[in-house]
Amino acid sequence: MRQDKLRFCAGAAVLALLMIFTLSRVRAKAEGAEDISAKAAIVYNGSTGEVLYEKNADERLPMASTTKIMSALIVLEQDGLDEVFTADSDAVMTEGSSMGLQVGDKVSLRDLACGMLLPSGNDAANAAAVRVAGSVEDFVGLMNERAALMGLENTHFVTPSGLDDYTDEHYSTARDMAVLAAEAMKNDSFREICGLQRVKLNFGDPPYDRWLVNTNKLLKKHGYTGIKTGFTDKARRCLVSSCMRDGSELICVTLNDPDDWRDHEVLFDRCFPLIKQTRLTCGKGCAYIAAADGRRIKCDVPDIIASLTDDGAARADSRVYLPQFVYAPVNRGDKAGEVVYFLDGKELGRRDITVSEDITAPKTKTGPAHRLLMFMRRAIRI
């Protein structure tokens, strides 16, 4: 599985453009969060791009094993996730946290993703890198390419594990890590794995059952859905977490934070009251399109529900996409076009615009004049 096997999400170039707009800040911010001990922090609504709290959110800092969010995302986008192979002998011989790989162990990429996201295995990150790209160095190249596609201008990777880089070239920001985490959580496999408190895997030489335990203690609390812990001597304690309340999910990132468990709980408690499930509508909820014979056809324009601040809801807008005309007959419920809802240029969602009534085909003309015209046309062709 080499570099050319990497499957980026469809429309990556469009994604990169849209990610630029995630830098927008809302005017309603969490108050009373001056006691947050992190050197840098952010609370981010990944579905809308709204920032609910930030502190030094654009300062470049080492991010320790939260690096593995990018590594695991790339791994989980590969084909053959459950194909068993022998882990590279050199890759498994690394320092720091481990999933317990030994030379000669047989394992799958899915196992390695679990090993990265739960016990934060550096051996898992290196073994996966070699399997996907042929070498750790080439895999890091893929990580940096992906970061560029996502618009992460203040992020640079040197290792797939997040171990301290003594050249100071392995860094990110709280804002970039929040955008990365939001993108990773769109991957169903990533979301499932990073939310597990523990998992039983079968690997080794010969393979045998064993349990891996997640280092993220917040998962024991109600509503937390992920994502990744990190620690090195240089980066200190780093944490990227996600939490779901009343149908809305927020992401919190803290870098260099001596009290990260508390800070994340405090920030979520202060930021969730700022957002609510909001119904966005387009005008009067209907639009009209012309039939080819000149009749007007009424169409239903659906609304969407989005988790927004009041300020964000006031700034949201929509665009309707309909053809100039359609040919009858059309039936009620037929798709006529689309409506797309936006906040500051970032797409919040799109829905089909459907025909709200049955429109029959134009009546065929059968009178004497029409029959004479058809006769003359046939005569000319003869």
The number of distinct β-strands equals 17
Number of domains: 2
Helix share bin: 25-40%
Major pleated sheet? 6 strands, mixed
Q: Mean pLDDT, as a whole number?
A: 90
The first-to-last residue Cα distance is 66 Å
CATH class of the largest domain: Alpha Beta
The proportion of strand residues reads 25-35%
> Number of helical segments?
11
Low-confidence stretches: 5-28
CATH superfamily of the largest domain: DD-peptidase/beta-lactamase superfamily
Tell me the strand order in the biggest sheet. 14-16-17-12-11-15
Radius of gyration: 27 Å
Q: Assign the CATH architecture of the largest domain.
A: 3-Layer(aba) Sandwich
Q: Examine the coordinates and then state which fold CATH places here, giving the name of the CATH topology of the largest domain.
A: Beta-lactamase
User: Helices and strands, in N-to-C order?
Assistant: HEEHEHEHHHHHEEEEEHEEEEHEEEEH
Shape: globular
